[in-house]
Amino acid sequence: MGTMKLRDRHAFVTGGAGSIGLATAQLLCEEGARITLSDLPGPALDAAGAALPDGRVRAVPLDVTNGTEWQRTIADAVSAFGPIDVLFSNAGNSGVIVPVVDYPDEVFDSVLAVHVRGAFLACKHGLPAMRDGASLVICSSVAGMRGDPGVSAYITAKHAQVGLMRSVSKEAAARGIRVNTVHPGPVDNEFQKNIEQRLSKVLEQDATAFFDKLIPLRRHARPAEIARAVLWLASDDSSFTTGTTLMVDGGMNV
């Protein structure tokens, strides 16, 4: 049993079928929240919803790039669980690993659509449904604070989320709504493993070991460690924190 920092609050999580989204939803639920868990429709979303307690979660399909779907899903969520107290914008895709001169236009567009347009629509449609004093957290990345070759779309998207957060934090402050980004470093999950498998070929060495050498703590994060950072931003523990970038990267960006 958690400390019930979010007792009877409503948390809306996008990208909920992935490891960070699900770990965060599980922790927020343990802390007393009711969860609207969203992701693209399919078995992964169904399994994620089934992993959370009955009666405290609703798993709903959502394409975060589609404004009409956002309107429908937000209205449905508020009808079920009331105004939103925590919105975790976490949906993401990785793109490909190639030099910018070879980067496919359509892949670049897709990465920006999910990360940037998705976070923009979360703010646009989520804020009117949020309670005063609520918390909006966008999942950026250590990639939002640095530059690396071969991942121009992902780097651009993660930097753009920081700009969006900083702008929206000023707009939402009048209602006491806090807006922040969380910046994971490499995480021990399938999303990162898929990236590292492709990157190993580019680097001609094991990318997992390569990243571990870059991280002062010498390991990847666990999804639960990212979830705890999101909980801090979601709860009253961070009541005077807004417009900030919370690094959870083992020191990688120092």
Task: Provide a short characterization of the protein structure.
With 254 residues, the chain is an alpha/beta fold. The protein has 2 domains: 10-185 and 222-247, Rossmann fold; 188-220.
Descriptive keywords:
Rossmann fold, 254 residues, globular, seven-stranded parallel sheet, 2 domains, 8 helices
Give an account of the 3D structure.
The protein starts with 9 loop residues before the first strand and ends in a 6-residue tail after the last strand. It folds into two domains: 10-185 and 222-247, Rossmann fold (3-Layer(aba) Sandwich); 188-220. The model has no long low-confidence stretch (mean pLDDT 95). The chain has a seven-stranded parallel sheet with strand order 3-2-1-4-5-6-7, sandwiched between helices. The chain has helices at residues 19-30, 43-50, 67-81, 105-126, 152-172, 190-203, 207-214, 223-234; strands spanning 10-13, 34-39, 57-61, 84-89, 130-139, 178-184, 245-248. The protein is α/β, with parallel strands linked by helices. The longest helix has 22 residues, at 105-126.
Shape: globular
Task: Return the CATH topology of the largest domain.
Answer: Rossmann fold
Strand content: 15-25%
Number of domains: 2
Number of helical segments? 8
Q: In this structure, how is the largest beta sheet organized? A: 7 strands, parallel
**Can you tell me the CATH class of the largest domain?**
Alpha Beta
Give the CATH superfamily of the largest domain.
NAD(P)-binding Rossmann-like Domain
Proportion of helical residues = 40-55%
Mean pLDDT: 95
Identify low-pLDDT runs: none
User: What's the total number of strands?
Assistant: 7
CATH architecture of the largest domain: 3-Layer(aba) Sandwich
* Run of helices and strands: EHEHEHEHEHEHHHE
Strand order of the largest sheet: 3-2-1-4-5-6-7
**Helix-strand category:** alpha/beta
Distance between the termini: 35 Å
Radius of gyration: 17 Å
